[in-house]
Amino acid sequence: MQELDLLMNGFAALLHQPFALLLSVVGVAVGIVIGAMPGLTATMGVAILLPFTFGMDPVSGLLMISGVFFGGIYGGSITAILLKIPGTPAAAATAIDGFELTRQGKAGIALGTATFSSFIGGTLSIIVLVFMAPLLASVALEFSASETFALAVFGLSIIASISGESLVKGLIAGFVGLLISTVGLDPMGGFPRFTGGFTELMSVPFIPVMIGLFAAAEAFKAMEESGVLKNKAAALGRIIPPWSSYKRMLGTVLRSTGLGIFIGAIPGAGADIAAFVSYNEAKRFSKTPENFGKGELSAVAACESGANGCTGGALLPMLTLGIPGDAVTAVMLGALTLQGLQPGPLLFKEHSDLVFTLFAGMLFCYVVMLIMGLGCLRFMGKILQMPKSILTPAILALCVVGTYAINNSMFDIGIMLIAGVIGYFMQKWDFPPSPIVLALIMGPMAESSFRRALSLSSGSYDFLYTRPITAAFLLIALSTLFYPVFRRYQKKRQQRGLQLAAENGAA
Amino acid sequence: MKSQKLIARLLTAVCASSLLLGASAHAADYPTKQVEVIVPFAAGGGTDLVTRAFADAAKKYLPKPMGVVNKTGGGGAVGLSEIVTARPDGYKIGTGTVEIAMLPHMGLVQFTTDDFTPIARLNAEPSAISVKADAPWNSYEEFMAYAKANPGKVRIGNSGTGAIWHLAAEALADKTGTKFNHIPYDGANPAVTALLGGHIEAVTVSPAEVVSHVAAGKIKLLAVMADQRQAGFDKVPTLKEKGVDLTIMTWRGIVAPKKTPKDVQEALRAAAKKTAEDPAFKESLAKMNLSHAYLDGPAFKVAMDKDNAFFKALMTKLGIAK
Amino acid sequence: MTHSQKSAGTGNTDRSARMEIIIGGLVLLLAIAAIVFSRKFPSTGLATDIGSARFPLVYSCALIVLCAVLIARNLAKLKQPKTEAVTEPDAEAEVPNYRRTAIGIAVSALSLFAMQYLGYALVTAGYLSFLMWLLGMKHKAWNPLLAIVITALLYFTFSTGLNVPLPVGSLFE
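Above: the input entities. Below: the structure tokens describing the complete assembly.
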């Protein structure tokens, strides 16, 4: 266990750098705030802090950035659970069940579960990064366009499991989302589609749509009720989940962490995809899949451990091969080169002491995140006790400012408000909003990688079944899509059987 | 409408001057507040890093700090349009990239190259033909011989259709009469990843974008599309040495809206010159393996116009131009 | 979701069925419009590409099928013999006040428009205190004060803390 020795040395080296420790604490704090704000994502947070690292030594600078990365992924869950504002795209999956739990007065335990699951997912992913990096790094290179396409299709099939009551309505929402995802520059030809001449529409304004559909729509709905009354869901309840109940979720958490690491390591796939996939698999393996969407605690645990498992997974190909695993690590790659460090196999050879000090620091970051998260939850929970007449306007203002911050664009705020109004009506008529968000994440990926794969194989469709990973993902996608239909059919048959039995019995 | 705006501006001017207690708004004092620099690409990318390093080093030479703002989308179209339409008072400038000389021909944007006032070019990177280290071709000649023998078989990854590295590969095909299969990726990085995985045969991105993989022995450079050999890659020949007269560079520099007052331009040019020659800035570029290619405003303008004419001709020939 | 439980009890399934037919029709129109527009997309010029209109076409066709299913289902529902055709008044304690939501949305749109000219600070403070008033908090001193506090808090978090410049307004630039 050479790595273990190196890691221990890393911890020892870290102890001699109080400044680096302090900066990682600062990084985590900033990350949690940025993650919790709608619009500001972990990617932006890392980019914002990047210039501050110019003058720092590598360990301090990189640990601060890692702190922002980890905190940012976790922070999104807080507002998603409390207010149905997904601070980050990954938290859109958390919001589905997390906010239902808040409605039921179980906000505290939802937040606590999210915090513990984020911690476990993140820490395990860093440990995997330390000990199995070279082994898993090759996965990243195996993924060509056809594999990415199949992964995107699998992601899209998850619409079936987040559709709520009506599969048809969920699919309509999903396909509308897919249609919206084709707005903007064509991925192969580079000319604008459905933009109506607006330069701003050349890239799909994904995050404004998400903030609108979730947060603004919820705020508009809250206006229907008089606001002077105290919030119905004021109760926070206990925060730290009892071991007896958390124990039951451990399997889910471990599975989701594994999925998160794997998805994180794939270039171009990040925490958002990991969270939705973890949700889907948690539902698939659950004994009570019908509870999903109605406030299932293990759904929150799955999303959060999956999303944070992604952090170590995404760092893995970035450090070992110099290939970023997602958008955040792409920015971190820039930070590394600015420090004069070239990520890749040579990094481990030439700077192994530094790399392992970083790993030790990352584990420290996660411990800080756990402590800080648990410490601030009581305080954050106070938000629920605010009268709605103050909370609702404040949420709307936060949505407006957060949306503006993404690209300093008024246009995006307009998109957000329109999405909010549409989301409000969707809610009225039971169309779930999360399929649209999922479609916006996966749609561009599906289209561009399919067309790229076709070009790579010179126009032959063989890649759909000749490549094992591609074929496997497509099969899983089919099973995910048709499982609910199959279940419904089975249920009907069972019921009919019972009815017949009853009739026969009566006769 | 116009008179309303005028009144509003007059009012603002009066308010501002009274607030500043007579401190006149002459450019001699420029800048009196933070200068916003628009970056048309995402945070953390090459253009962003160059700008941030520049803004960081410029602190010494400007009385007020520069604020970097990313305005992404449309392959640079959104941010560059924002710079063009900004109020020409020197408080909203931007980082101009080679896309200034390309986007107008595609009919995607309202501006032309002449809508920018070049202040200073900071960096330029040529295109480099790179293949996997274990590829059977060890020289440019071997590679091209294979490509000519197998038309359409060699897949070259680029950073997007109509983007600079795509045009580089197209120009190479055009000059040498070869047929490649061009595969657009979502930026240079994913294209390099695909090359590492062996999913494509070559990329035409800049040396800086593959340098770490070259150092790790995973990728080799066959030729660069530059006038001279590149620092750090002195063993890699230029296309000119191989008898192909082709130079394709991406560049990044500070630009301002067209109607920016002359004295403000002068102030910016002076500050940019000092910043560009600052050792701290040079060191940052070197760390990122980016080449320092400073050009003063007028010389930058000449280079820009030259590229503009070149890309117009090339894109018209390829049928990308509108 | 929560609404379905509500509507089930009040016997307005007819109304919701009709509404779903209308929504299905609208999405159907959207899909057809997308197909019409996508026919004009130029070719990408790449030999092995399926063209940029293909994916929107596939999505639109899927939407047309799904909308047809939705409409057919609801038509069937409407044809079913009605058990309780009379729509009784909503017996729930709090009647949703749709007018307030409509005003809230309108004011949001108005504020967005005003922000281009008046800037972030002024508009947000006004917007917040009006919304509070709309939601039943009608204090003369507390409303603007709280609005200013929230505005300032957001300003410091974003502008000072995170280096995100907020709109100044074209009148003050």
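Note for the figure: Residues 259 and 285 of chain A are 14 Å apart (CA to CA).
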